[in-house]
Design a protein that fits this description.
Length: 320
């Protein structure tokens, strides 16, 4: 009677967080929770992806795998499109054949950053770099294939495990007396646990639907969701508020110093994006409007500052 959940990218920043947030009660409703990473499944190999889905027979697929190296994507567009676009198309097609729900995560970088208010889901997309273009093509494959999928666009993701701006800036602060950070890009740093909870809520709704189909009384811990799983829908999912990379860096360094993770506070110098010689262009403004998400999923956005402070409070002294 239980459902089967497959997580792709299970050892990455988001995938690992998903594993940590699977509540024991939800596990009791699952026939299987299977996590695979790049050591076991090559996301660039369609045959491996198809075989994995056939073997696991998931009811819910959570795609937490992604090529996220924005600068490197400019030099290796083939790899970025293989993982962020073509693999998504394969997953969508196979999920549709097997009747599975596909949960996918996309990015604020599908927008060009010229807006002056938070982007809504229906705003025109126009990515300005290879990474954003590859993620947009993944979204387009979802729309072309159809089936049961939910797409969460997010931004500036961070977690205790994996690489992210917060941990990178703290490592640099340990080694240097002066850091240069741009102050002309605005977005919302978003904790991976918020995104993990959304993906697992979808799994919970699928489990609830299974109980209803069988005429069984569902366990009380399963989510009380208004209706079925949204089908072929994109939602913006980020922390509340907005900031610049500069202010984000300053907050992280200040908190790390308070926590004793930094012996001294380096000077943080403001810079403009054109002065940084980035290979990849960045959207100047990529704040996302979460109204649709909150209406359908009945969730509250975490405050980005509180979430960053919480991350740093829980980092070990020897964090990597």
């Amino acid at each position: 009677m239980g459902i089967r959940v497959l997580v792709l990218g299970s050892q990455g920043q988001l995938g690992h967080t998903l594993g940590q947030h699977v509540k024991p009660a939800l596990l009791e409703t699952l026939d299987a929770y299977v996590g695979v990473d790049r050591d076991t499944v090559d996301m660039t190999d369609p045959d491996q992806l198809i075989d994995t889905l056939k073997d696991v027979r998931p009811d819910v697929i959570i795609n937490a795998a992604a090529y996220t190296a924005v600068e490197q994507a400019e030099r290796d567009a083939h790899a970025a499109f293989a993982i962020n676009a073509h693999a998504v198309g394969v997953l969508a097609e196979q999920a549709k054949k097997q009747g599975a729900v596909l949960v996918h995560y996309s990015t604020d970088y599908v927008f060009d950053g010229t807006a002056n208010r938070p982007y809504v889901e229906t705003d025109a997309v126009n990515p300005v770099n290879v990474y954003g273009q590859s993620k947009l093509q993944g979204e387009q494959f979802l729309e072309e294939v159809g089936g049961n999928w939910v797409n969460f666009r997010t931004s500036w993701v961070f977690a205790q495990r994996g690489g992210n701006f917060c941990k990178t800036i703290l490592k640099a602060a340990r080694e240097r007396d002066e850091l240069t950070v741009v102050d002309d890009q605005r977005g919302a740093p978003t904790p991976a646990n918020f995104l993990a909870e959304l993906g697992l809520q979808v799994a919970g709704v699928v489990a609830m639907s299974r109980y209803k189909q069988l005429g069984k009384l569902a366990p009380s811990f399963l989510p009380d969701h208004p209706g079925e799983v949204p089908s072929e829908e994109t939602f913006h999912a980020t922390a509340a508020g907005e900031t610049t990379w500069y202010d984000y860096a300053c907050l992280a360094i200040e908190q790390a110093h308070k926590q004793g993770l930094l012996e001294r506070v380096p000077t943080v110098v403001r810079a403009k994006t054109p002065d940084m010689n980035f290979k990849a262009a960045r959207p100047a403004y990529s704040v996302l409007n979460n109204t649709k998400l909150k209406s359908v999923f009945r969730v509250n956005q975490p405050d980005w500052q509180k979430a960053v402070r919480n991350l740093i409070m829980n980092l070990p002294p020897d964090f990597e």
